[in-house]
């Protein structure tokens, strides 16, 4: 089976997609970003496929005329593009990612878990009610910036709220670089309201706490009950049933939406850059502090404290920034400590083994 991939080398850009129908690969998210990493020869030998589902031991991949399961590959995650080695699938080559969403795994191990690759827009969903929490929204926005994904804040249940505008205003205070929309997720025209992002070739994802309307929105986009019916039961290592439902659904009109639960215990993962972007003004101000490691507390010559005293910055926002920076520092430190521990454990084992041999 030989396929013609030459169209991807004619300089077609994503804007062209608005004028013509996407090819099947393009509807899966294939773009110049990926074709540039390959050659026509390579594409013919090893056709590109996108990972749309990750099971425990297998990956479900989709490509032009390809819909198959291959064995898991190390560090490959839903949304990745692979050049599929048809004879030896385990030799398939992953392509460089446009974006990568990751998180620190829940629990005490704090290892890093890859969530999804090559997402273009992440809808950060909260409701216009007690779920609304500015600090959590900021955390999600920082994570999106870090992942190089465009964040859009959706405030659902506007129909149940007296004054959605006050929630929009608060959320907008996080950054003027992001769009904030209040909506009723059950509205018949939700898909139209999200039309700016739901475009051919675009991959969307949803983040937010339980019950805020993520499934409702996914279903509105896919036009079916995929978000609920997509659950896959698998046995984990201990023989327990776990639900792994992290998959990409194709959207009518040629786009993809990632449906992934378990994004609740979200912690920042090496998100220094993301935090700095969300709080760009404070980060910039802090450059003016006398001491480089200023804690912006009681240090002399602190530019942050000076701005606070002058009423130029908001106290609550400053506190949230400090909390995120501290959390980030803690995470980074515990990583280094973990690595150091692992090294000294190895040394210890080697020492014990060598004394035994003697
Ligand atoms: N009135 C109203 N109800 C909504 C809105 N968004 C969601 N709901 C309702 O809120 C409930 C929870 O919505 P879901 O879409 O299941 O929420 P979810 O975020 O997917 O929750 P998890 O699957 O637990 O993560 C459902 O009963 C929805 O019908 C909204 O904008 N307005
Ligand atoms: Zn300072």
TrEMBL record:
Ranges for domain EngC GTPase:
117-264
Q: Which residues form the signal peptide?
A: none
Q: Cite the entry's keywords alphabetically.
A: Cytoplasm, GTP-binding, Hydrolase, Metal-binding, Nucleotide-binding, Ribosome biogenesis, RNA-binding, rRNA-binding, Zinc
Q: How is the cofactor bound?
A: Binds 1 zinc ion per subunit.
- Cofactor names: Zn(2+)
- Enzyme class, UniProt record, top EC level: hydrolase
Q: Which residues form a coiled coil?
A: none
Please report the stretch or stretches of sequence annotated as the CP-type G domain.
Answer: 109-266
Residues the record lists as binding GTP:
156-159, 208-216
Localization annotation? Cytoplasm
Q: What is its EC number?
A: 3.6.1.-
Per UniProt, Zn(2+) binds at 289, 294, 296, 302
Q: Which domain of life is it from?
A: Bacteria
Task: Indicate where this protein is primarily found.
Answer: cytoplasm
Q: Which Pfam families match?
A: RsgA_GTPase
Purpose: One of several proteins that assist in the late maturation steps of the functional core of the 30S ribosomal subunit. Helps release RbfA from mature subunits. May play a role in the assembly of ribosomal proteins into the subunit. Circularly permuted GTPase that catalyzes slow GTP hydrolysis, GTPase activity is stimulated by the 30S ribosomal subunit.
- Its quaternary structure? Monomer. Associates with 30S ribosomal subunit, binds 16S rRNA.
Which family does the similarity line name? Belongs to the TRAFAC class YlqF/YawG GTPase family. RsgA subfamily.
Q: What is this protein called?
A: Small ribosomal subunit biogenesis GTPase RsgA
* Species name: Aliisedimentitalea scapharcae
